C-alpha cells in the first residue's frame, strides 16, 4: 500500500512538472469558443456578401473574373472590403474576449513571453499574405483573393502551432489544402472562404472546447 501511495504521488508530481513546462513554453489559454465565435462571424459575413453579389449580378451570386472587372462593380468591391474589415474586427474582438476569460479562469497571464512569440509567428505569414492580397486587389485579381487568404492563414496557423496547442496545426493544414483547391475553382471563392473561415473554425472550436474545456 505504501509503495502504491508513493507511486501515485510520484505520478502526480510528474504531471505537475509537465503542466508547468507546457505553461512556460506554450500559450494554452487559447479557447475553443474563440474559434467558434470567429467561425460564426465569418459565416454571417459570407451570407451578407452573397446577398449583395446575388442582388447585384443576379443568379447564384457566383462571379467570374470578367464580372469583377466591370466598371460598375467598383461600389460593390468597396462594400465587400469594408465588410471583410468589419468581420475581421468582430472575430478578433470576440476571440480575444474568450481567450482572456479562459486565462483568467485558469489564473494565467494573457500577455507574456510565450504569447508574444505566438503573436509574432502568426503575424509574419499574415503580414506577407496581407501585402500579397493587396497586390492582387491592385491588379484586379479578385478571383485569387479567397485562395490566397486561406493559404496564408493556414501557413500562419502552422507556424504558430509551436507556441500553442498543437491541434491548431491540423486546422492550418486544412486551410492550406482548401486554398490550393480553390485556385482551380476561382468562381467559388466565397463558398470556399465560408467553409475555411466559417465551418472549419466552428468544427475546430467545438472540438477544442470538448477536448480541453468542457470539464472546467
Describe the structure.
The protein is globular, with a radius of gyration of 21 Å. It has 216 residues and is mostly helical. Helix content is 78%, strand content 0%. It has one domain (2-213). Residues 16-25 have low confidence and may be disordered.
Short description:
The protein is mainly alpha-helical and 216 residues long.
SS summary, helix count = 8
Radius of gyration computed on alpha carbons: 21 Å
Mean pLDDT: 81
**Coarse morphology:** globular
Distance between the termini: 32 Å
Main features:
mainly alpha
How is the topology of this model organized?
Blueprint: H1 2-25, H2 32-57, H3 65-68, H4 74-105, H5 113-138, H6 145-160, H7 167-182, H8 189-213
Helix pairs in contact: 2-4, 2-8, 5-6, 6-7, 6-8, 7-8
Amino acid at each position: 500500500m505504501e509503495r502504491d501511495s508513493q507511486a501515485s504521488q510520484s505520478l502526480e508530481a510528474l504531471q505537475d512538472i509537465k503542466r508547468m513546462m507546457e505553461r512556460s513554453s506554450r500559450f494554452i489559454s487559447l479557447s475553443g469558443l474563440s474559434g467558434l465565435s470567429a467561425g460564426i462571424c465569418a459565416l454571417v459575413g459570407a451570407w451578407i456578401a452573397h446577398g449583395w453579389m446575388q442582388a447585384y449580378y443576379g443568379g447564384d451570386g457566383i462571379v467570374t473574373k470578367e464580372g469583377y472587372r466591370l466598371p460598375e462593380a467598383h461600389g460593390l468591391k468597396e462594400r465587400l472590403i469594408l465588410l471583410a474589415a468589419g468581420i475581421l474586427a468582430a472575430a478578433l474582438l470576440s476571440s480575444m474576449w474568450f481567450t482572456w476569460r479562459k486565462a483568467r479562469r485558469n489564473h494565467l497571464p494573457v500577455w507574456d513571453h510565450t504569447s508574444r512569440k505566438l503573436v509574432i509567428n502568426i503575424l509574419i505569414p499574415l503580414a506577407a499574405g496581407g501585402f500579397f492580397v493587396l497586390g492582387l486587389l491592385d491588379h484586379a485579381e479578385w478571383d485569387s483573393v479567397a485562395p490566397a487568404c486561406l493559404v496564408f492563414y493556414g501557413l500562419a496557423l502552422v507556424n504558430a502551432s509551436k507556441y500553442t496547442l498543437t491541434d491548431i496545426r491540423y486546422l492550418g493544414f486544412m486551410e492550406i489544402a482548401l486554398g490550393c483547391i480553390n485556385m482551380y475553382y476561382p468562381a467559388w471563392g466565397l463558398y470556399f472562404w465560408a467553409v475555411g473561415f466559417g465551418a472549419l473554425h466552428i468544427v475546430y472550436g467545438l472540438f477544442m472546447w470538448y477536448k480541453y474545456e468542457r470539464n472546467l
